Amino acid sequence: MTLSADIDRSELSVLLDIRHPAACLAFHPAVAFAESLGIHINWLPLTVPTLNPPTQPREDDDRGTRHRRHRARAIAREIETYAAAQGLVLRDWYRGGDAGAANLGWLWVRDRRPDRLPSYLAELLRAYWSLELDPACAERVAALVDAQQADGASFLDWCAAEGPPVAAALAEELRERGLFQVPAFVVGDEVFYGRQHLPMIRWILEGRSGPVPI
What are the tens digits of pLDDT across the range 173-202? Predict the structure, then answer.
């Protein structure tokens, strides 16, 4: 399998890291957004640093340390608020680790059953954030691939041999484009970080007619 990011040929590309809460919170709004416009999203995995938990206060904390702690707490409150609004279960916001197998499953389904990719991603995110899935476990990911009728057994063979170089090449392509955070929304040569930009993206995709949504 050879793989391209296909960003230049797509109306809208959305990059997510399943380990990042902001990416999880962006998934369902992005799906609804695309459906409302009748467009297809080019979904791509992008590995970024995960969130750091707030530090415990110390007597010798400087101003910068206190600011980072307050910001981390504010981010946590925002995640809690929006997860509840979407009816999502997000456990362990600061969970890290390797998501390589999950991302390889993503690329496999993207290539073999692109029509099933949103379904795969929805289940991947649900299982990861409910702590049911080790995203580094190829066998567990193969079961998710099978559920999308994308041949989990062949995926395991690909995952063990050809898959990692394909994923590495795609990651390098995304790095060369300067993409560094999630969720990232790419429209033409413009990049927007965060689901709050969906009104602006809609305005662009609808021909930039009418007032700018700012």
Answer: 999 999 999 999 999 999 999 999 999 999
Name residue 168's amino acid.
A
Task: Evaluate whether residue 38 is within a structural domain.
Answer: yes
- Asked if the structure places residue 143 within a domain, the reply is yes
Q: Strand, helix or coil at 103?
A: helix
Q: Provide the b/e sequence for 190-205 (b: ≥16 CB within 10 Å).
A: ebbeebebbebbebbb
Q: Beta strands 41-45 and 12-16: pairing type?
A: parallel
CATH number, residue 31: 3.40.30.10
In a domain, 83, yes or no: no
Digit-coded pLDDT (tens) for 92-101: 989 889 999 9
Question: What pTM, to 2 d.p., does this model score?
Answer: 0.94
> Is the pLDDT at 2 greater than 80, yes or no?
no
Burial of 28 (0-12, 13-18, 19+ CB in 10 A): middle
pLDDT of 214 over the 70 cut: yes
